[in-house]
């Protein structure tokens, strides 16, 4: 039997995210690009995060519980469980616009073979969804390393590898 490999694995560390995880899940479910799996690693939540995730009946969403060890451990555990050809991280208190994965996938799929990352702009928002500040993921006209040293244009949930 052939194993079905999703194009993208979304790894989501979550810790006490009962107030934010519904919007995170809704933003993934609304993606126009649909060849994904979502690995949610609950980092020892003591709120209703688990119940909320389990109420989303979607076979592409997989939930795992981990004793509290922090985001790094949760991300690593999710990475180990992922099966996708590409990977992106999305924390349990973040969300995407509906065409985010489509744009990232298209950019990476159409890139030269030596390109391994597609990234996008992002915004910091308050709890009500009001934009506080927009950030560009563009590199400067100088060397890429210069941009990374002076101003890291990436956030973890805006890069597809």
Report the helical percentage. Answer: 25-40%
* Radius of gyration over C-alpha positions, nearest whole angstrom: 16 Å
Order of helices and strands: EHEHEHEHEEEHE
| Average pLDDT rating | 84
What ranges have pLDDT less than 50 throughout 5 or more consecutive residues?
none
Task: List the total number of helices.
Answer: 5
Strand content: 15-25%
Coarse shape: globular
Largest sheet: 4 strands, parallel
> Structural class, from helix and strand content?
alpha/beta
Number of strands: 8
Strand adjacency order, main sheet: 3-2-1-4
Cα(first) to Cα(last) distance is 28 Å
Would you write up a description of this structure?
This protein has 161 residues and is an alpha/beta fold. It has helices at 21-29, 49-55, 71-81, 100-109, 144-150, and strands spanning 8-14, 36-43, 61-66, 86-89, 118-119, 122-125, 131-135, 159-160. The protein has a four-stranded parallel beta sheet with strand order 3-2-1-4, with helices on both faces. The protein has a two-stranded antiparallel ribbon with strand order 5-8. A two-stranded antiparallel ribbon has the order 6-7. A hairpin with a 5-residue loop joins strand 6 (122-125) and strand 7. It is globular and about 45 Å long. The two termini are 28 Å apart. The mean pLDDT is 84.
């Amino acid at each position: 039997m052939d194993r079905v490999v999703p194009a993208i694995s979304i790894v989501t560390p979550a810790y006490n995210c009962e107030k934010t995880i519904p919007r995170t899940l809704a933003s993934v479910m609304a993606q126009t690009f649909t060849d994904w799996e979502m690995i949610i690693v609950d980092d020892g939540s003591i709120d209703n995060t688990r119940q909320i995730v389990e109420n989303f009946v979607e076979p592409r969403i997989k939930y795992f519980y981990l004793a509290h060890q922090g985001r790094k451990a949760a991300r690593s555990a999710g990475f180990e469980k992922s099966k996708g050809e590409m990977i992106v991280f999305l924390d349990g208190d973040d969300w995407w616009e509906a065409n985010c994965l489509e744009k990232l996938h298209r950019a990476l799929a159409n890139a030269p073979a030596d390109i391994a990352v597609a990234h996008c702009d992002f915004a910091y928002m308050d709890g009500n969804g009001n934009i506080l500040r927009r950030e560009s993921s563009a590199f400067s006209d100088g060397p890429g390393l210069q941009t990374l040293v002076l101003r890291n244009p990436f956030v973890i949930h805006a890069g597809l590898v």
